[in-house]
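Exam review. A common question shows you a sequence with its structure tokens and asks you to describe the fold in words. Practice with the pair below. Do the first one on your own.
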Amino acid sequence: MSVLSHTREVASDTPSLFVYSAYSSKSLERMVQNIERFLDTTTESFADVAYTLACRRQHLPYRSFVVSAKDKPGEAPSALTQDVGSDYTLVMVFTGQGAQWPQMGRGLLRSNQAFSEVIRTTDMELNRLGADWTINNELSKTSRQSRVNEAEFSQPLCTVIQIALVETLASVGIKPAAVVGHSSGEIAAAYAAGALTLSEAMAVAFY
């Protein structure tokens, strides 16, 4: 089997991200083969294996990944098996209003603990600020019901989605070296830079 493909079934229809890394391309290929043999005999779920690879293993120079769901094996681009080195910088760019859509982030809200925890905490902050609606409820509405394009809702929603993404990436060790914000995207950018707390960011977005 190629180092870049995965053919095992996952435990549910929710995709799992498998992160592979090694000191060389040969080691990378052997690693995937070893994982395949392990999956042939274990009762562990794909999600558990994916979590261990992403969060409980050292990330080495030669890397690849694949996103797989039940009956939908994925394939990673071969370039990702090259030596990525260690000299890189991550910049995050944050959008203002206009990029939103109904039910945005709903998949992560249902499947990712770090993401859903931010939404839960934010709803508590909005309640404290006097909001009579919740992020969770608004993100669950259909396109006919959604108020995501109304300014009262779009600014807090766009802000919290981006903050939740920042925390989701941080939960697996991905943090920006610099941030850029366009328009109201500066709120989430300021949060990512550590200039605003979650409470402060949501107060700015709400008012």
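Now try the second one, then compare your answer with the model answer below.
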Amino acid sequence: MSIPVPPQQTDPAAAFAPHPGAESPYPAGAPYLADPTRPHCRFCGSVPAVDVTVRGHQGFLVMMRFLRLPGPFCRDCGTATVRRMTANSLWQGWWGLASALINPFTMLMNLVAWSKLRKLAPPAPGAPGTPLPVGRPLYLRPAILGLLVPVVAVGAIVYSVKQDPDFASAGDCVHKSGSDFSPDLKVVDCGGSDAQYKVLGRVDSSAKDACAAFPTAEATYWVEKGSSSYSLCLVRIDDN
């Protein structure tokens, strides 16, 4: 009967130090050999390195994923990682209401990590591995177009709000579609050909005499939502 041997705990720094009695494959006096306990890059083993965490975010409408890759990183490997994970977040991180709010903070945290990485000296020669290629800056990658996603979304929301009669006030113009029993009102440009009515005033009531204070009003558009209600007192633009 064999007894399993538990795995031994090893010092990560020992992986970069020569074995006793063995000839070192690295140049004599290499920085990481002078102090094997200092942080080494997790990818190439080079120094100097800084212990930062690079993050990413993925939105799936009703679900989301928080991605993180802890260091240490040398300048080149860290820069490559920041650019890759941020580029992925630029087009994967907006899909969902919560994700759209979280994703900017994810990229801001990567900006903080990058500010620390860029202060490092270039990776020292003679490391166990080769530093990752940093790749192109984010503004030269197609993923930068992902910044248009929140811009377009905000623009669509603003455009929708501007057309919503819930936000109409005196002086605005509206266009009515649908029937008189089920009208559909939207706010339009007063100089446009689709402007039919001008709002004389808004009253926080849906009573039949809500527009009594506006004797020239020719139509009333009223809305009731739960315990709140309002009326828009309208006059035809042709008659105004």
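Model answer, second protein: The CA atoms of residues 62 and 96 lie 6 Å apart. Residues 30-154 form one domain. Full marks require stating both points clearly.
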